[in-house]
Design goal:
This protein is an alpha/beta fold. It is 42% helix and 19% strand. The chain has two domains: 43-80, no CATH class; 84-294, 3-Layer(aba) Sandwich (Rossmann fold). Helix 5 (105-122) runs antiparallel to helix 6 (148-157), helix 7 packs parallel to helix 8 and helix 8 (194-206) runs parallel beside helix 10. The longest helix has 25 residues, at 245-269.
Length: 297
């Protein structure tokens, strides 16, 4: 495996000490991958540049960048902000789940959110943070000041999943909280009543926000590869069930597929980007999805 790919692997990133280091190395690994791949659709010149547009003053063209990329970029001043983004992380009880050899859904979401925040700041975009379970607990409004990233990362790092859940209610609160139009990126398993969740996502679109919804799932929640007699425990109600998984496997998988497809179908109809991400997948999958969306805004 190439060295840069190591820092896109959840198991490797989880071993790093600080949230700042995790965010930086994920982004650096991701950016190295972009430079080495034929991936197109978004400029990789982030911090001080944007693509040249007709009408821009020629004196602001960066000819050094042109020499490297054969594309015209103009120097972007710090006060220019192209995007306002809120990153929302679900910290409800179900996000604590982690199967063997995988990190929890909350950890995966936290590391990915930290990396995305770092990436947004590198682009001089404004980024904010929301943390919720059954209600909205933390709200940091979007800002583009470079020092703001420290507060966002510190807040993510000191937060842990709770014993409560209520995704739909919390997302509706967030939709009312955000004053100015922008991009809302949500990391959640969306384990709530599907209709209520979909109505909450539509609430953001009603407010004229762009939305990217990342459904973060553990591999076992999708594959259900259990064997023998297994004791299952509900992480939100603490109810237990002893059963033989082979008897439930087919029925369970069908229900999961139906659940995912229902959300995916409704999101597509409302022009909401919806992506399923497994916690054993490299972080660049979600970051590429973000860049694809970012390129259209």
């Amino acid at each position: 495996m190439d060295d840069y790919r190591r820092f896109l692997q959840p198991s490797v990133v989880a071993q790093l000490k600080s949230i700042e280091l995790k965010a930086r190395l994920v982004v650096e690994g991701f950016m190295t991958g972009l430079h080495r791949s034929p991936y197109h659709g978004f400029s990789v010149e982030f911090a001080e540049h944007r693509q040249y547009n007709p009408g821009d003053e020629i004196k602001h063209i960066d000819w050094k960048v042109f020499a490297r990329t054969d594309k015209y970029f103009v120097k972007q001043f710090e006060e220019e902000t192209n995007l306002r983004c809120i990153i929302a992380i679900d910290k409800s009880a179900s996000m604590r789940f982690a199967s063997k050899n995988n990190i929890s859904k909350y950890e995966y979401s936290a590391y990915l959110a930290a990396a995305l925040s770092y990436l947004l700041m590198k682009q001089r975009d404004a980024v904010g943070l929301a943390l919720y379970d059954e209600t909205l607990h933390t709200y940091l409004p979007p800002r583009s000041k470079s020092s703001y990233i420290a507060e966002i990362l510190k807040t993510i790092d000191k937060t842990y999943p709770s014993d409560r859940t209520g995704t739909a209610k919390a997302l509706n609160q967030l939709a009312e909280k955000i004053v100015r139009r922008g991009l809302v990126v949500i990391f959640s398993d969306f384990f709530d009543d599907p209709e209520s969740v979909l109505n909450a996502l539509k609430h953001f679109r009603h407010k004229k926000h762009e939305v990217i919804a990342f459904q973060i799932l553990d591999p076992q929640e999708i594959d259900f590869k259990y064997s023998g007699s297994v004791l299952f425990k509900d992480m939100e109600t603490a109810e237990t069930l002893q059963t033989q998984p082979l008897q439930l496997k087919k029925f369970y998988r069908e229900k999961v597929v139906d659940f995912i497809n229902q959300i995916k179908r409704e999101c597509f109809e409302r022009n909401i980007d919806f992506n399923v991400i497994r916690t054993d997948e490299p972080f660049d999958k979600a970051l590429r999805q973000y860049l694809t969306k970012r390129a259209t805004l």
